[in-house]
Amino acid sequence: MKAKTFESLIRKVVREEIDYALRREIKSLKEDLRDELKPTIVEHTERKVEVPQQSSLKEKIMGKKPIKQKQNFVSNNTLNDLLNETAMGDTNTQTAMAPTSHPFSSSAPMSTAGMPDSVANAVTRDYSGLMKAINKKKGR
DSSP letters along 52-111, please? Predict the structure, then answer.
């Protein structure tokens, strides 16, 4: 047998053996990982600790409101809670972030006092021609 042929046979056998050994090792590592990653259920017991009542920041700022008696408006508990919340006034309309008026809901002209000229022009511009062109393009 020639040396080159013998060398190529040895290379081929070594390569096959390495592939076989690597496959075996990878398989065992995957099995180990699967075992480690299995979810373990741990049950926690809760301990309730009573915290002394402190006045909240809202109470400090707004003061205490008299507590109104909850009424039973409907039989659905969720809906009843929402209706009671609305009746007590705990809705968005009483916060500082609530809109106070709806300037675009009426057809009355908007006051442009204190606005920059570019903004005042954009607010008071007649957009009817633009809307007609858009409707014409849409085929209405």
Answer: -----HHHHHH-PPPPPPP---SS-HHHHHHHHHHHHT-SGGGSTTS----TTSSSSPPP
Residue 84 CA to residue 69 CA, distance in Å, equals 9
pLDDT at 21: 93
Under the banding of pLDDT at 50, 70 and 90, the label for residue 60 is low
Name the token pair of 105.
């809901």
Q: Which two tokens stand for residue 119?
A: 């903004």
Interatomic CA distance for residues 42 and 34, integer angstroms: 18
Q: Give the tens place of pLDDT for each residue, 5-51.
A: 999 999 999 999 999 999 999 998 888 888 777 776 777 777 776 66
